[in-house]
Design brief:
Chain lengths: 104, 129, 142
């Protein structure tokens, strides 16, 4: 019984872990539009790193540009910006996820 | 031998590891013709840092680039760039956004006819709800 | 014995709150609108493998303690990377924030938004929390 519990624990514990570092939500001004009058737009940037050896953080700008292009000519309100990391074997992947309501 | 050692040491000292501390993004405007950007940084040696005043001038920089408008869609990135064995690191703040001229901003606010122009004003009481 | 039990229960149930990040947005007050406060809390369970191993060692003999240490070290090799609070096993637990805000304030007239990222730490486990508070502007008499 103990071994089964230990095995189950190990299977669970050795799974992929993640860490959410921050979640920021922007204002809803100046548009203040309801959900139905806009379209949900999302973008993501990611960066794989081995032991943190990376020299730039360009993936953030990539996510930003993707969000801009997904709502050309419109206002994006209520933007949530989340920065997280997925852990791995001597390496990890950083993620930036942005989503907001595009109002045209 | 000497040349190789110098090269190796230079590479070790110049190689950096960049990581994000925090991010924020403000609402993105429809007018994105005038981009504004500021970057402020400070080198810190062995953690000896007694103030963070280097950040203060970032807002003034943006104001200078957008004297008659509102800076919106502002992506602010706070990052650390670590150099050799974390003895030295650089704190860097980068802010990128768009300057929306006041004339465009007032059109978006759909003011009633006959309302006097209030160029330069972005007060909360005027926000369209 | 009762005192010991009480003490250990209190210690186990006590949590420490750790604030990682907080941000406040624009606050708009208008005389023709009332502000209805709302809050949203999303939490996921974080696990500290090191503390789990330390706790397990209490009930083990010397050999078992060594094994627990080895297992914890081996797991740690597969979970490398920057952390804020304890790691969680669900990646996108806070991905529906915007929908949740609209559930609380369907009109989208949201102001005074404050986003908080915090950890409620208990022995071995923790609550990895994203909390949002704000106000929904509702027109008077509307």
């Amino acid at each position: 019984m103990f071994r089964v519990t230990l095995a189950l624990f190990l299977v669970f514990a050795t799974g992929c872990t993640h860490s959410l570092h921050m979640a920021h939500v922007s204002d809803f001004s100046p548009a203040f539009k309801p959900y139905s009058s806009g379209e949900l737009v999302k973008s993501q940037g990611e960066q794989f790193t081995v032991m943190g050896f990376v020299t730039e953080t360009e993936y953030v700008d990539v996510a930003y540009k993707k969000l801009l292009s997904s709502c050309s000519g419109g206002t994006v309100q209520g933007i949530t910006t989340q920065y997280s990391t997925s852990h791995g074997f001597f390496s990890w992947t950083n993620y930036v996820e942005m989503q907001g309501l595009c109002v045209r | 031998m000497f040349r190789s050692s110098v090269l190796l040491i230079s590479v070790l000292f110049l190689t950096s590891c960049a990581s994000i501390n925090s991010l924020s993004l403000t609402p993105i405007p429809p007018e994105r013709t005038h981009q504004v950007r500021t970057e402020k940084s400070k080198m810190i040696f062995l953690g000896f840092n007694f103030d963070n005043d280097f950040v203060d001038s970032a807002v003034d920089d943006l104001k200078t680039q957008c004297p008659n408008g509102k800076v919106s869609g502002l992506l602010t990135k706070d990052e650390n760039i670590n150099y050799f064995l974390y003895f030295v690191w650089k704190k860097q703040i980068t802010a990128t956004g768009f300057c929306v001229p006041n004339s465009t901003a007032s059109v978006n606010k759909k003011k009633p006819r006959g309302t006097a122009s209030t160029e330069g004003s972005t007060s909360a009481s005027e926000t369209e709800l | 014995m009762r005192n010991k039990f009480l003490l250990s229960s209190v210690l186990t149930l006590c949590s420490c709150a750790q604030l990682h990040h907080v941000q406040i947005g624009e606050v708009i007050s208008r005389p023709d609108y009332v502000q209805k406060p709302f809050d949203i809390k999303i939490s996921e369970t974080g696990i500290n493998i090191g503390e789990a191993a330390d706790t397990a060692k209490i009930f083990m003999n010397k050999e078992g303690q060594k094994q627990a240490n080895d297992i914890a070290s081996a797991i740690a090799l597969f979970q490398m990377g920057p952390r804020t609070g304890n790691p969680v096993y669900v990646k996108d637990y806070a991905k529906n924030l915007i929908q949740l805000i609209y559930e609380k304030c369907p009109s989208g007239k949201v102001t005074g938004l404050m986003s908080i990222r915090e950890t409620r730490k208990y022995p071995v486990v923790s609550g990895e929390i994203v909390k949002l508070t704000g106000y929904c502007l509702i027109k008077k008499g509307g």
